[in-house]
Amino acid sequence: MSKKRTFTASVWRDGKWYVAQCLEVDVASQGSSETAALKNLADALELHFSAPVATRAPKVRPVEVTVRAAYTGSH
Q1: pTM
Q2: How far is CA 39 from its chain centroid?
Q3: Helices and strands (H and E) in the chain: how many
């Protein structure tokens, strides 16, 4: 089931590129013009909301990180 939805984008120039960032969803893209950046953002949003299609089983691996004092886990 497909449904059209409108999102809001913030667009700015960063060097020779234009960056378009969706304000409702954490998705961004870029392009050589404002129009291209917005088109690429629309494509990225469509991919973001597409159902994943696995061609093979993904590898699941543990990731170990050092967590600073800001997070101490449950007590």
Answers
A1: 0.69
A2: 14
A3: 1, 3
Rounded distance, CA 8 to CA 22, Å? 6
DSSP track, 2-54: -------EEEEEETTEEEEEESSSS-EEEESSHHHHHHHHHHHHHHHTSPP--
- Could you state, in order of their start, the residue ranges of all structural domains in the chain? 9-48
Query: What would the pLDDT profile of 57-75 be if each residue is shown by its tens digit?
Result: 878 999 999 988 765 555 5
- Between residues 5 and 72, the one the model is more confident about: 5
Tokens for 32? 């050589």
